[in-house]
Write a structure and sequence with these properties.
single chain, alpha/beta, Rossmann fold, seven-stranded mixed sheet, 7 strands, globular, transferase, S-AdoMet-dep_MeTrfase_Alr7345, methyltransferase activity, Methyltransferase
Amino acid sequence: MQQDEVRHPAELVAFARVKAGDVVVDVWPGGGYWSRLFSTVVGPKGKVVAYVPAEITGFKSDPLALAKAISTEAGHANVEASSYPLAEQPGADMAKKVDVVWTFENYHDLHDSFMKGADVNAFNQAVFKRLKPGGYYIVADHAAAAGTGLKNTEDLHRIDPAAVKAEVEKAGFVLDGESTVLAVQGDDHQLKIFDPAIRGKTDRFVLRFKKPSP
């Protein structure tokens, strides 16, 4: 598959340390590529939560309907669609019960105006509370030029990895690893990710954060 060629699923699943029996939250699943993949990896004893932020449920693509449809497919009954505001804190049924939280190419969008003033810090804190001690939070996104911080999240759809690290570590996480499997040399970080010259060939970073054990 073409998506496999640009997403390197085997390498990233290994990097995320997703395994059989895990509970995985796929934040903003889009078409469901990663939710379906994680569903197969975690198996019947595991669970995948395809989480659609309430802030985007009104999109024309109907992302919540797309997420709900995954569980109706053969082999993916362990996928559960979920939607609530980004900053909502977990109830007792979810607190400290998640092994991996994953977000792919969408973290930068959490800062954009169409997210209706979403509080990214509150979201990261909610992720922290959902994860088990020792659990992982994986953020993959399009890289902005070093030192630009959050400047290009809306116009170029890019984010400085250093800004992500600062925000996520503020919530209590520890940076546990970085993968360069999606890195692309020569990407002009000043171009919008949809520019035909680089679309599908952007420089992307992958960060693994860990919730410390007590």
